[in-house]
Amino acid sequence: MIEYSTGQGEWTDWIVAETAFDARNSAKFETIFAQGNGYMGMRACTEESYPGQTRNGFVAGTFNRFDDSRWI
Question: What residue ranges carry the coiled-coil annotation (predicted)?
């Protein structure tokens, strides 16, 4: 279960917490707990691997292969 309204004082409603682990919701929680700044993004993940899980770091402007038609 995920709790969106945790925190006290100035942190009220700024802390998002997972109150109990459920592998069926891991992809959803990984997305919610992702952090990025417009250039680089990191998706949260557990220490253990689960079927169908995507573990990656994302950097804007990088791709899986080089495009020969573009001068760099």
Answer: none
Quote the CA–CA distance of 4 and 23 in Å, as a whole number: 19
Count how many residues are written for the chain: 72
Residue 41 to residue 60: CA distance in whole angstroms: 8
- Helix, coil or strand: residue 5: strand
* ∠ Cα 32 37 38 (to 5°): 105
Alpha carbon distance 54, 72 (integer Å) = 29
Task: Summarize pLDDT for 44-60 with one digit per residue, the tens.
Answer: 777 777 777 767 666 77
pTM of structure: 0.52
